[in-house]
Amino acid sequence: MTQTSGTSSTPFRVIIVGAGIAGLSLAHALQLANIDHVILEKYDKVKSIKGAALTIYPNAERIFDQFGILSNMLSSTAPVAAEYQRWPDGSILGSRSTLDRFRIMFKVPPLLFDRQTCVAHLFGGLPDQSVIKLNKRVEKIEHTENGVRALLTDGTMEEGDIVIGADGVHSIVRSQMWYYASASEPETVPESDKSALFSEYDALFGVSKLEGSHEDYGMAAAETNIVFGQGVTKLFFQQQGQQLWAIIFKDRYCQPPKKFKATDQDMEDVAQRFSDIALNEKVNFRQLWESRTRAGLLTLEEGVLSQWHAGRIVLVGDSAHKMTADLGAGANIAIEDAVVLCNILHRELEKDRNRHPSKAQITSILAEYQKERFSRAKLFTELSGKVTRAHSYDTLIGKLLATRIGPMMYETQLLKLATEWAKAPKLDYVPVRTIDENAPGWLLARGEEKNLSRSWLMCACFGAVVTGLVFARYRLSRL
């Protein structure tokens, strides 16, 4: 199809597998770069079938602003007015204003909505929706002399220069990348990558519609609740007149993760197990379960692959790194992946969209992408896991971090996270439309790192001392 390291009459072409948040973000970025592409989606419509609530932080909001869809997103949601941390009985432990603080710092309120709403905005705002082909399930990926082809279960195929796996944690693209590497580049992918992911938590998630108004249940029009507990975290959000929730509970440790396809009875059993847990002073889980409009039960995989590419195949988002839900960072980091990869492709093809880099050049391009993304993905994957374990009281130290030490370190934690969002990538080749990049939050990326790291170290040392004192007191009280 293509010529090696040269120019032809056909444009460089990207094959994207998966029309979720990562895949649609790739499509937006590629269309803005005028790079030819196609999206292969295995379902019969563009939808998000996994997860319920989704938080979009300033890092991804700036990218969505470049896509031209942020204004519509903001107008369809209410800014979060209240954020509560609760004891296992549903009573208030504390009230923080993280999302509102981000609104003030970055001059844009973080978005809280369900995943399907996010997907709908990404799809609805895509200039050329004809690039998405539905009911297209990948069966095999083959490398050709000068390109790559995706063979589909319906007997058709798509040819291009690279394949991007945006098809989630159970990625067929990843499996095909491993197969190719074992046959053609045996030193590329370490065997350890095949067990790099693990699982220790499951999540029952869903969307509900309680009768009456949010005031009847002691809630603001848009609010978040994190309910701590022994071996379980409860996430309970109100937005757009509906309730978004997740029950994240500890299961047995599995590496690689267990393969699990939940039945309706499986979900019912879990729902009954947690039916009496309180989510605030007026709502228990039974009420949410009985008023659910949709629900699902998933294994929460965790981990980061050490190799994200082989040959002309590359992974983005959950296919390369998977994190737990408590921090709400997974989709944000996947969107960043898409932007970084497209920035590099745009740079390589800017002068000639018909250029077809050789396989060696493609390897160099994809290696640059992974190098830029790996540390950040690992950081947020590990941080997400630590937050989940603290919220679920996985250990005494975790409980202390969630309920005692964390609140004392809140200001430093907030500043550290804000700085990470400020340092996030954006598209190099299109302007920001409405975001004010002179807002205080964005300026954190321009010189606060040294001061921040110093204060973070001091706070960490203070936290360690407090932990020791509290632990000693706990032990003495048991004597």
Automatic annotation (TrEMBL):
The keyword Nucleotide-binding does not apply. Keywords: FAD, Flavoprotein, Membrane, Oxidoreductase, Transmembrane, Transmembrane helix. The keyword Transmembrane applies. Signal peptide: none annotated. Coiled coil: none annotated. InterPro entries: FAD-bd, FAD/NAD-bd_sf, FAD_mOase_fung. GO terms for molecular function: FAD binding; monooxygenase activity. The chain crosses the membrane at residues 455-474. It comes from the Eukaryota. Residues 13-378 form the FAD-binding domain. PANTHER family: FAD-BINDING DOMAIN-CONTAINING PROTEIN-RELATED (PTHR47356:SF2), FAD-DEPENDENT MONOOXYGENASE ASQG-RELATED (PTHR47356). Belongs to the paxM FAD-dependent monooxygenase family. This is FAD-binding domain-containing protein. The lineage of its organism: Eukaryota, Fungi, Dikarya, Ascomycota, Pezizomycotina.
